């Protein structure tokens, strides 16, 4: 399976309302899962205005309020919250983290995939137990 074929499957899924797609070919299996909220705007038909309608002015944006952010599992596998069974966990509740910092790893097919913080924040809650199986798109950690 080459990159062009994979892109074709991604484009096909993006232009449909499928939640997930799995394709096998020559010993490879490609599984695509749409994250909750991702692409939701694309699946809702847009309402277009007549070309002669004037544009409505936008109200000034209010100051952003810090919202909790859930870090989602990028793939199916077994989650590990520490680098080794006898080691300290990567992170604990209440700990400040920086974007790019490793929060946990997901083991899939004997490969350990690091899950990193997408932004700076504080660990609000760890939502999974070490050693448990997780699905792609499942919330792992909540940041505030």
Stretches where pLDDT falls below 50 for ≥5 residues? 38-49
Per CATH, which architecture of the largest domain?
Beta Barrel
The chain-level structural class is mainly beta
* Biggest sheet strand line-up: 3-10-8-5
Query: How many β strands by DSSP?
Result: 10
Reported for the largest beta sheet, the result is:
4 strands, antiparallel
Give the overall shape, derived from the CA principal axes.
globular
Output the number of helix runs. 2
Q: What's the pLDDT, averaged over the residues?
A: 80
Question: Per DSSP, what share of the residues sits in E-state strands of 2 or more residues?
Answer: 25-35%
Topology diagram in text:
Blueprint: H1 3-14, E1 20-25, E2 28-33, H2 40-43, E3 69-72, E4 77-80, E5 96-97, E6 102-108, E7 111-116, E8 121-126, E9 133-134, E10 139-143
Antiparallel strand pairs: 1-2, 3-10, 4-6, 4-9, 5-8, 6-7, 8-10
């Amino acid at each position: 399976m080459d990159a062009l074929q994979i892109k074709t499957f991604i484009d096909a899924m993006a232009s449909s309302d499928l939640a997930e797609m799995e394709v096998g070919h020559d010993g490879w299996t490609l599984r695509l899962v749409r994250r909750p909220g991702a692409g939701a705007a694309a699946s809702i038909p847009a309402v277009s205005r007549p070309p002669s309608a004037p544009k409505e002015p936008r109200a000034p944006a209010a100051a952003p309020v810090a919202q909790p952010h859930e870090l989602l599992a990028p793939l199916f596998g077994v989650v590990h919250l520490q680098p080794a069974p006898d080691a300290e966990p990567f992170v604990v509740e209440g700990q400040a983290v920086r974007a790019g910092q490793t929060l946990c790893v997901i083991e899939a097919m004997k490969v350990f995939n690091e899950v990193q913080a997408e932004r700076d924040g504080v660990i609000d809650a760890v939502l999974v137990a070490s050693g448990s199986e997780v699905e792609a798109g499942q919330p792992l950690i909540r940041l505030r």
